[in-house]
Amino acid sequence: MVLVIRLKYVQELSGGRKRFRRRYPTELIEKLGTEFFQVAMKAREGAEFLSEYAQLTKAFDAEVARASRTAEELENLSESAKWAEALKDAEKLVRGASGFDRDDDLDEYDPEVEARRLAAAQIEGAGGDPLLFKALVQPTGRAPELTLQDAKDFYVRVFQKGASKTDVDGLDRTCKRWVKFYGPLKNFPLSYLKRSVARDFVEHLQATPANGKNKPLSDRTIARELQRFSVMISRTIEEHDLEGKIFNPFKNFNSLTVGNREGRVGKSASEDRDPLPAEVILQMRAKLLGPRIRRPELSLIWRLLEGTGCRGSEIIGLRVEDVRLNHEYPHVVVEWHEGRRIKTNASVRDVPLVGDTLAAAQEAVKRAGKSKMLFEKYAYEGGPNAVSQALMVKLRKFTKNKRHVVYSLRHNMKDYLMIAGVGERDEHLILGHDLGSVGSRSYGGDEGRLARATEAMVAAHKLMP
């Protein structure tokens, strides 16, 4: 008894030959210009036939997936991104390719070359995507030039994971302003970036009205938008080893000539803040430690912000495991993890816990219980903004000065450290600022740095109201 297996989409031809023939989805037929994906099969039976059948099924799926991209998706896809996708699809087909016959006349036999030849023949025979065919036969061919769209896609995929909604929306807004002025990001190669291009864009931003207002964007808003845009470009240049080949004209955007305005685009948000007066800090403490406080987490967060000088997202993003209470020098570890990002490499640090700040950390750990995050209630994308807004409502009861905000506590800590005579290096270690030279960054061990930082923090706390 002979077992006959009839596979779907395989047609029997004369002379024992076989053909793989599968109809494309109705909605893709017009787009592809053909109704069927069909290829004459080389193998006729056995394991090679089954392998070739499986590989043709993968080729069909790849064609359908590529053709199913929406017009909106394709509109923003750069040529470099299309080429990268074609290479990935080609590699998948090569890994599954089989069913070819070895040419015994060849002195050297390369299975990958033969696999590529077979897959390419199948795609060509079916009238498939020319770019996929090229990726199969010329995988090392020159890739299309990287564009601003590639830079944005790369930055969003790699560096904006865990970023706040404000940062994500901010970069997207700046890119839309660019598109309005220069056209689609995918049409602007990174090699076209010049100083004159950046200067024209700055002047465009200066003439752009703020949302819902008749006056143009403020210098501070422009500075913030250009900073995000510059980081996006710099990260891409670094990742693709393009230093010295591609120029980032936005890297020193404050030195751009900006029409009739000052040569400096504007202060950053952090620079446009003042330390909180002692009486305001005392009033906030009384308010947050009072019996009517409905959200104890806010009180603990305020005490940690006040006593460490950390950024809001650094405190709110702490995991319980980041709070080292049993260490010789109790501290919190500010570092990257899956739940949040860190502003810069210098921001990764150990921040000492002393005085009331240590007590607040102990209470926070106790309240967290078995939760992974120290402040589980605010451990979501918009959590830091929600905390900031809630604390600002209370702060505005004691000061109407617009330069007084929650972030001002960081400026307070900087002042305490400076008045206490703490050296600049130790101050930067606590606040997470760039230390400058490599020697300064790498000198000394972790325990030594933490001991020095703790000593500096104790001196600063003696000056707190």
Automatic annotation (TrEMBL):
A molecular function (GO) term: DNA binding
Keyword Cell wall biogenesis/degradation: no
Domain of life: Bacteria
GO biological process: DNA integration; DNA recombination
Keywords: DNA recombination
Domain Tyr recombinase: 271-462
Protein name as annotated: Phage integrase family protein
Annotated organism of origin: Donghicola tyrosinivorans
